[in-house]
Amino acid sequence: MRPRILVTGIPGHYTRLANGAQGLSVSYSERQKQPETKEEFLQELRNISNTGNYLIGEGALRAIAPHAKQVPFWHLYNCSQNGVGLDEFNANFDICVFTCANLLRKGLSADAEAEVLGKLKMPIVMLGIGLQNRRDLENSLPEGTKRLLDVLKEREHYFLTRGFETAGFLKDQGFSYVQPTGCPSIYLMPHNMRASLKKLPNVPVGKARTIFSGYLGANHDCIVDAAALAPEGSRPQYVIQDEFLHFDMNVEANGDGRVYDSASGTMLGELSYPGTERLKTPFDVRTFFDTNQWRAWASSMDFNFGRRFHGSIIAMQAAVPSLMVAVDDRMREMLGYTGLPAIDAVEVDKAENRAEFVADHLAGLNASELVDRYSDRERTFRSALREIGIGQ
Predict the structure, then answer these.
(1) Is residue 391 part of a domain?
(2) Model confidence band, residue 140 (pLDDT cutoffs 50, 70, 90)
(3) Quick one: pLDDT band at residue 279, thresholds 50, 70, 90?
(4) Quick check: pTM over 0.85?
(5) Same-domain check for residues 325 and 219
(6) 178 in the same domain as 246
(7) Which residue in 73, 214, 322, 368 has the fewest CB atoms around it within 10 Å?
């Protein structure tokens, strides 16, 4: 008999429409949101914290057996807090898949996760768990995260990690089933992912319509990228993930009281962030709360040069050739495991001619080897899900 699968944790974009839940049932609005005022836009961004996270939940749910039921984590947490309890979930499910990201980090105490998973009396699959910074693991983790790991030691557990470093840490903690598989977002649209890899060596750097992503408001890195790689006379394209929440990037409403156009994903009004004076032509800035809209727009572009992991993955899902810049331990772990094409931030930042450096790197890639490596990682991921009993 197939296991009854509960999926929770990081959601896909579809959960934006959830307007209530009772027991095992979740209700969804038929009205698409249009968060066009500044207040509405920022609240929509706060709801997910980082729009790139939508890819994690979406990738997980598409990889798991289709009879799995997704329940928003906030509903499980509310049931745990308000006295309703989780007995109904324990009676109706055999295994829980908890979709996660860089959960092992200094700035996050997983108190809510520890409480909910501690009350679910079933095996737990931690899908996509990873680290943010290696030093976080060398020092003491937050108390809530320690409690979560203690909870998982007390029952049958499965850790499918983002890479080798996280797997090594968890094995050192005494966990038995630990396997690196990468982020589930990587395997959402494998045919397009392979198509993007095949195109990479032939990208006309400096002429290709290029998507940029990074940390506007925190540093000038992607501004320098755009100045070097965007076609002459074009308006460079930039996609937001969380910059308005965490960095020195701001937007003010236009004369109609709008900061955002829901139809195109374009930011309106007056944008401000440090470094704007370094660009001949300002960025055309977009935000996407629907991954289908994001992919559809990305598919019209020729190249992605990204300092954001999921901002680059969604371009690859649209078959757009992408080169990532590894900026931190989190990205280095994921890229090191998957073998997806990347250059280290230190190397690209010190290049005298950034466009030539990128073009030479792309020209030296072996597309067949990239495709073979990706296909091998995809097989490992799907085999692990089937081994646990939750795969298709």
Answers:
(1) no
(2) confident
(3) confident
(4) yes
(5) yes
(6) no
(7) 368
